[in-house]
Every structure is written in structure tokens, then in C-alpha cells.
Amino acid sequence: MTAVGGEPSEGAATLAPSAAPGDVPGDGALYDEDYYRTYEGGSYDRGGHWTRFFGYIANEVVARWKPATALDAGCARGIFVEELRQRDVEAWGVDVSEYAIGSIPEAVRPFCFVGSLAGELPAGLPARFDLVSCIEVVEHMDRAEGDRAVGRMCAVTDRVLFSSTPDGFREPTHFSCRPAEEWSALFARHGFVRAFDVDASFVAPWAVVYERRELTPYQLALEYDRHHARLQEEVRQLRGEVVALDKKAAQVGDAGLRDEIARLRVELLAAHDRAVGAVAEKDSALAHHADENRSVAERTRARTQAEFEARLHQSDVWRLASKMHRVARGVGGLRRRRERSAGEER
Questions:
Q1: Considering the entire predicted model, what is its pTM?
Q2: In the prediction, which pLDDT does 68 show?
Q3: Which pLDDT value is given to residue 315?
């Protein structure tokens, strides 16, 4: 993992180390000893903040899903892999940084591999996992690499715990920060949709769980709109509370009330953003679903036409018609030669 979240109560943090001019996405050399030594102005080590953070996430993962196997896609120094294994999960990890993998303790090292999520996963990993986690990783790739990484993850599991900062643009190794709806649309192309009944904010405020589900457009629209309706109701109630407190504060001039109003305004804006994001995700996912349906229909028509033509060419009727066509062409050629000969004699 080339980037991870912050304390559970604070959401995910952003990175501090800088990339040099000419650095490119997917280059494991970017994430060397200096990168991890100066991570967020501190050091990415075991035994402190990061062990507590990933221990907390491991507790939540085990309590919620009880996975027998897990893959941490972008595992960095393997801390999450280690925490999961301490909780009897057969966990594995892969990361592009040779330095990070090489610094993992011997007890965990056999379960972590050097490799890019945008390419074939390394040999030695299980074929499938109950859960794949990808926490603050794909923004370190360019768009094409990120797309391929999502495809690789979806190919080996039915559930992905996913977090990618949507606005960490100041971090120089963040090559592709995308809004949540873009990731949802991309996962939808692989048959994965957001699990609305799961709150993944124990990883980061924007963290999501995607699950493989076969949904019709009707079911997809229903789920997104149901979630959107809940968010709209949250916005309505918060707005009403803000208005009521505003009036009360104006009457009594209470500084504490003004602070409470300010806090509620922040909550209101956040709820509004979630509601807008849900609509965007639904529209994007439905558009991709329609594109996939059209593509499948076109491929089906082409395959049906090709199969029909192949059967036709192999049929007795086709062979007889071809023979009759050749005979007719021969007769026509003979007639024309006779006509030419007759003309020359005259």
C-alpha cells in the first residue's frame, strides 16, 4: 500500500513525501526507504500509529465479514496483512515497492509479494479471496493503470473494501484522484455495486464496499434512489434543525448555540454532498449498464449471423445451389463462345 488512511476517528490522511520531476505512475522506485521514512512527516513503522490503525480495521473486517482469506492490494510494509493473520485470517499482500516488501518481518514476508495491481498478480497467491482490500492505492496510478487494477481485483473476489481519496491533489504521487461516482461506474462494469447497507467510514470518510451482484436496471435504480431518499431526508431534518437554532440564537444571543449551528451547517453540507454524489453514481452506473447491454446485443447479433452463415454454407441446399450456380455459369460461358464462333463464320 503506497498510501493509507489516518486514525479511525479522523478519516484518511494524505501523504507528505514528494515525487521528483520525471517520476511516473506505477514506478515502484518512487516508494523507497526515504518515502516510508518521511511518510506524513513521520515514519511508516510498526508498533505505533499504523499498527493501531490497521488493527482497528482488522477488527471491523473480521466482525463484519469473517473472511477466511483476504488480499491487501497495495500492502506497503504488510502491517494490515500481519494484523489480519493475527486474527486467524489467511491474508496475503502485494505491492509495487520492492523496498516495502523487503522490509516486512520474516514471519509475514512469505505472504507478501512484489507486483503491480495493473498487471498479472504474482505467482504464489491463491486464485480467489473472500475479501480484497485496496486502501488509498489507486490514486497513485494513472487512469489506465487504475482501471486495470480494478479489473484485477474484481476477477479474484466478490467483495472489495475500497478507499481512494477524491481530492488529494496536493500529494505529488497522487497521479489520478477521481470522484466516488467514477469508481462506482468502473466497478459496475465488472458487475460490482456499492453495498449501501455497509458503512465503511471506519477506514476513511469516502471508503466504500463493492460487492458482486447481478442487478437489472430497475433494481439498480431502486437501490440508488432508496439510498438517495434517505440522504434527502437527512438533509431536510438537518436544515430544519439549523433554521430552528438560528431563530433561537437570534433571540438569546447564545455563543454556544452559534457554535452548535456552525457544526450543524457542516453536517448539512456533508449530507447534501452525499445526496448529490448518490445521484451522480446512479446516473453513471445506469449509463454504463446501458452501454454494456448494447454491446452485448451487438455481439450477440454478430455471433448469430456468423453461426447462421456457417450452417448455411455447410448445408446440402447451399452445396446444391453452389453447384447449380457453377453449372449455370458454365452453360452461359459455352453459349457465349458459340455465339462468338457463329459471328466469326458469318
A1: 0.61
A2: 98
A3: 67
Mean pLDDT taken over the chain: 77
How far is Cα 204 from Cα 60, in angstroms, rounded to an integer? 13
* Contact criterion met (CB below 8 Å) for 2 and 95: yes
Question: Where does the chain have alpha helices with state H?
Answer: 33-37, 49-65, 79-85, 98-102, 143-155, 180-189, 217-252, 255-314, 316-345
Exposed/middle/buried for 331, CB within 10 Å: 0-12, 13-18, 19+? exposed
Of 20, 19, 14, nearest in space to 40 by CA? 14
- Residue 109, exposed/middle/buried by CB under 10 A (0-12, 13-18, 19+)? middle
Residue with cell 509479494: 113
Rounded to whole angstroms, the Cα distance separating 267 from 238 reads 8
Q: How confident is the model at residue 146 (pLDDT cuts 50, 70, 90)?
A: very high
**Mean pLDDT in residue range 30-38:** 74
The CA distance from 80 to 78, in Å, is 6
159-163 and 208-212 as β-strands: parallel, antiparallel, unpaired?
Answer: antiparallel
CATH-assigned architecture of domain 28-214: 3-Layer(aba) Sandwich (3.40)
* 13 secondary structure, DSSP code: P
CA 322 to chain centre: 54
Helix (H) or strand (E) holding 179: none
Place of cell 503491480: 116
SS3 150: helix
How many whole angstroms separate alpha carbon 288 and alpha carbon 281? 11
Query: What CA–CA distance (Å, rounded) separates 147 from 141?
Result: 9
